[in-house]
Write a structure and sequence with these properties.
Layout: H1 2-20, H2 23-28, H3 36-41, H4 44-57, E1 62-69, E2 75-81, H5 92-95, E3 97-102, H6 111-128, H7 138-143, E4 145-150, H8 155-163, H9 171-180, E5 205-208, E6 213-216, H10 244-253, E7 258-266, E8 270-272, H11 280-297, E9 300-301, H12 313-321, E10 325-330, H13 340-349, H14 354-366, E11 371-375, E12 378-383, H15 386-396, E13 399-402, E14 412-419, E15 423-430, E16 436-439, H16 440-445, E17 450-454, E18 459-464, E19 467-472, E20 477-480, E21 493-495, E22 498-502, H17 503-509, E23 517-526
Parallel strand pairs: 3-4, 3-7, 7-10, 8-9
Antiparallel strand pairs: 1-2, 2-4, 5-6, 8-10, 11-12, 11-13, 14-15, 14-23, 15-16, 16-22, 17-18, 18-19, 19-20, 21-22
Length: 532
């Protein structure tokens, strides 16, 4: 009998120990999903499979969204990374810092899609073992951040650059591409299968705050040669945003309140940051971020200061958000596709993995601009300049709200409230969802309760004879005189140093129906998300 008990006890201990070994630790015992060796030989479909394998293995942190299918049937996709990826709600739009990263915009730049996928797996490893990446704590960053990775924007071109036109699957697409570029050097290709250089195809409209005018720079001649017909590079397209790849990324940039954008390109070990048409404040901000990137990588800032080209993804992003945007040109190799011996050395020596984490830390320090745009009382974006904010709000059909600090997703209103004939509240507030909150102190004082505060326990109380209600100010939980937790329809919060409680709780105490109320709006906005 004793042996049986001991055997059962040991089995239970073994099961507990096994359960303590997390899935990620088991996963780390497996072969890496992404290696430079596998990436070097991979086609775009192989990279897509690596992306799916990453998401399947690390489902707590990663999710994949398909953004569109190219003309030759290849997938454009994004991988999102954050703490507990599936615990999502609408407030993540403002409660988390969003960063966008891409690679593979140009066909021949075959190194960068592998870099982007590699850093995703490295971030996962550091999340579960903070010693994996030096000087950065991915776990802490991901609690309040979402990193969005588009590893390869131009998968059709990627495959042609590495494997030639035999990689084109659709015979009609193949025949058309060969006719467009009869003298193709596939390893030098930058364009997609329409012969369009995607980084010349983005919409390039910006608002000139000095002249109060929108300007369209797309199609303006730049420093490099222009071509009016499809080619291996520099052809901007017959019209702006003509390509599915371009449209997919433009649309995605508008889905989130991205705080910065980083595009990995090759070659030159240089940082492009010169966006000077949005004013000196933005230019200096962008340059300061670029200097941080230079400190990390050892790369140089681009010279000359002005780089006159148009239709870039970074210009589109900056024009529409007034947030930092950079092109990071990796490697000093003039050989395409990039040789394998460059892969690990460039990634490690120049800390390519560290750049997004550094940018995340910097945008959190920078914070939000005070000019915030709301459309139908929901926050859309903040911008650096008031005149730009007014022009952008007009374009979006919204309004500009000026206040410092982080934005609320919705706007609440201060109101006066009469509850029945006997109870009146001068400092009530109504949320965007029409939920009403009233001051704790006003509820109980009108009912004859004595209000108190205990600094030792950091709690407020309302007492009338043997009845008592207590609010713990740290957790904002409410308890009765017997210490039992009181369930409320909405959690209390503090506004203007007042504890606010939901109206239905007050009405029940006052034995008055919430249907018998009169409201007067005071015309004052409250920028707090009260219904979270």
């Amino acid at each position: 009998m004793l042996k049986t008990i001991l055997k059962f006890t040991m089995m239970c201990i073994f099961i507990v120990l096994i359960s303590m070994i997390s899935l990620p630790n088991i996963a780390f015992a497996l072969e890496d999903v992404v290696t430079f060796e596998k990436g070097y030989t991979a086609n775009s479909s192989d990279l897509y499979q690596m992306a799916k394998d990453l998401v399947n293995r690390y489902a707590f942190l990663l999710e994949l969204e398909d953004l569109g299918v190219t003309q030759d049937g290849r997938q454009i996709y994004v991988i999102r990374m954050t703490y507990n990826i599936y615990k999502y709600d609408a407030y993540d739009y403002v409660d988390k810092t969003h960063l966008l990263i891409d690679g593979g915009v140009h066909a021949r730049e075959t190194y960068n899609p592998v870099v982007v996928l590699k850093m995703i797996e490295d971030y996962v490893k550091d999340y579960y073992n903070d010693a994996y990446l030096p000087n950065k704590n991915v776990r802490e960053l991901l609690k309040t951040s979402v990193i969005h990775f588009v590893p390869i924007l131009n998968p059709d071109g990627f495959d042609v650059a590495k494997f030639g036109t035999e990689s084109i699957q659709n015979p009609l697409v193949k025949a058309n591409f060969i006719s467009l570029i009869p003298k193709l050097q596939n390893n030098r290709l930058k364009a997609n299968l329409s012969g369009v250089d995607l980084n010349r195809n983005f919409e390039d409209i910006y608002y000139n705050t000095d002249l109060s005018t929108w300007y369209d720079l797309w199609g303006t001649s730049g420093l490099y040669r222009d071509t009016d017909l499809p080619d291996m590079d520099y052809f901007k397209g017959f019209k702006v945003a003509s390509e599915l790849e371009t449209k997919s990324l433009m649309a995605y940039m508008q889905k989130y309140d991205f705080r910065a954008y980083l595009s990995y390109h090759s070659m030159g070990q240089v940082i492009y940051y010169q966006i000077d048409h949005l004013g000196s404040e933005f230019y200096n901000l962008n340059k300061n971020f670029a200097l941080k990137i230079a400190d990390v990588t050892g790369y140089k800032l681009n010279s000359p200061d002005k780089y006159i080209e148009y239709g870039f993804s970074t210009d589109y992003f900056a024009n529409n958000t007034t947030k930092p945007a950079f092109t990071l040109e990796t490697t000093n190799s003039f050989t395409f596709p990039t040789p394998l011996e460059v892969y690990a050395h460039e990634y490690i020596e120049h800390k390519l993995w560290e750049v997004p984490l550094e940018i995340l830390e910097q945008v959190k320090i920078t914070g939000y601009y005070k000019y915030k745009i709301y459309v139908e009382d929901r926050y859309v974006q903040d911008v650096i300049d008031y005149n730009y904010a007014v022009a952008k709000a007009k374009e979006l059909g919204g309004t500009v709200h000026v206040y410092p600090g982080s934005p609320s997703l919705t706007i609440s209103k201060k109101i006066k409230l009469d509850l029945g004939e006997n109870y009146h509240f001068e400092n009530a507030v109504q949320s965007e969802a029409l939920n009403i909150y009233v001051p704790f102190i006003d509820v109980f004082r009108q009912m004859g309760y004595e209000i108190g505060y205990d600094s030792n326990f950091n709690q407020a109380s309302a007492t009338l004879e043997s009845k008592q209600y207590i609010v713990h100010l740290k957790t904002m939980e409410m308890f009765d005189s017997e210490g039992k937790s009181i369930s409320l329809s909405k959690k209390p919060f503090i506004l203007d140093k007042r504890i606010m409680v939901p109206l239905d709780f007050a009405a029940a105490l006052m034995d008055t129906s919430v249907d018998v109320i009169e409201i007067e709006e005071l015309g004052e906005n409250i920028y707090m998300d009260l219904d979270q």
